[in-house]
Amino acid sequence: MAKHAFLSASSAHRWLECPPSAKACEGVDERASPYARQGTDCHELCAYLVEKALGRDVEDPTENLDYYDQEMQDCAEGYCSYVMEQVEEAKKHCPDPQIMVEQRLDFSRWVEDGFGTGDCVIVADDVLQIIDYKHGLGVLVSAEKNPQMMCYALGAVELFDGIYDIREIRMTIYQPRRENVSTYSMTKEELLAWAEEVLVPTAKLAYEGKGEFKAGEHCQFCKIKATCRKRAEYNLELARYDFEMPDTLDEEEIAAILPKIDSLVSWAGDVKEYALQQALSGTEYPGFKVVEGRSNRKYTDEAAVAEAVQAAGEDPFEKKLLGITAMTSLLGKKRFEELLGGLTHKPPGKPALVPESDKRPAMNTAAEDFKDN
């Protein structure tokens, strides 16, 4: 079984914000979710395609991937194309760039026992590039001042700084299912300054289990997120509004509540799921019991059902037009546009209230329409 770093790069965003969470999570078992296993499969496919494109002798892992499907293939091929574009770009100013896939990166010079695995590292004389694949759909990941990427960059600098005169660090998140390619650049001096001023002292606190607990967005993947008292206090701050009806709150109060609502809902769901699992294991919560939820009937053997209905002279199947994604896979992107480009449209999305930092343009609202008239 692969060894995992106590203060890993992948969890750096959490332990840098909440140093004692690292010790608090130590020893807490957590089963990998289907989403995590799906991501692992796609990383393996991505690595294979890049190695193959580089002309290396590698074995196709596809038949051993539990979650392989056409979407995964498309995502991995897109990632491979992006990586090879970056390789070609690197060759313009370096005749023989170093390209490493699934490279172990050791940053223990700054974080005790710190290491991680970089999906792709490209070293081209003065430019060091780290590319990280994200298969997740739920959380949009930015490369800007991303601690995981910066830890990877430190490990890569440690490997190559004596061989290459590295000046620029370029970090990219490739997240195809969110149509997100995020790149952030910094100088080597800026990276090393962050390491000494922020990473080193905070990692020391985290390694020793010291520092202050702090709740926030970084709680999402924490192993103790359902039982953490600091997170409970953070979310229960909303209780000071006594859950008044919205029409009794003014604009400033609602604006203060809005940024916390998603976190509150997520926290409540985490507590509820944790309580269910504990109850199934024998824990009793006063006033609550475990019951069997509602379920729908299912066929035990679909082939036998189809055969029986056909024997009775009826057609058991329904015909349905392929969706746009499936139709594009069937025809190919170019042929799809030729045949069906004029027969598709993109209706307006459902209105959503988001922070001003969101990159999407603001919609016209009733107030703005009124101003125009």
The CATH C-level name of the domain at 12-208 is: Alpha Beta
Kindly report the average pLDDT value.
86
Poorly predicted sequence stretches spanning 5 or more consecutive residues: none
What is the level-2 CATH architecture name of the domain at 12-208? Alpha-Beta Complex
Main sheet? 5 strands, mixed
CATH topology of the domain at 12-208: Lambda Exonuclease, Chain A
Q: Assign an overall shape.
A: globular
N- to C-terminal separation? 67 Å
Put simply, the count of helices is 12
Q: SSE string, helix = H, strand = E?
A: HHHHEEEHEEHHHHHHH
Count of individual beta strands: 5
Strand % is 5-15%
Radius of gyration: 25 Å
Physical arrangement of strands within the biggest beta sheet: 1-2-3-4-5
Explain what this protein looks like in three dimensions.
There is one protein chain. The protein has 373 residues and is α+β, with helices and mostly antiparallel strands. Among the domains are: 12-208, Lambda Exonuclease, Chain A; 225-280, no CATH class. The chain has 12 helices and 5 strands. The protein has helices at 12-17, 21-25, 34-53, 70-91, 147-160, 188-208, 229-235, 251-280, 302-311, 324-331, 333-340, 366-372, and strands at residues 98-106, 115-124, 127-133, 168-175, 180-187. Strands 1-2-3-4-5 form a 5-stranded mixed β-sheet. Helix 10 crosses helix 11. The longest helix is centred in the last third of the chain and has 30 residues, at 251-280. The protein is globular. The N and C termini lie far apart (67 Å). The model has no long low-confidence stretch (mean pLDDT 86).
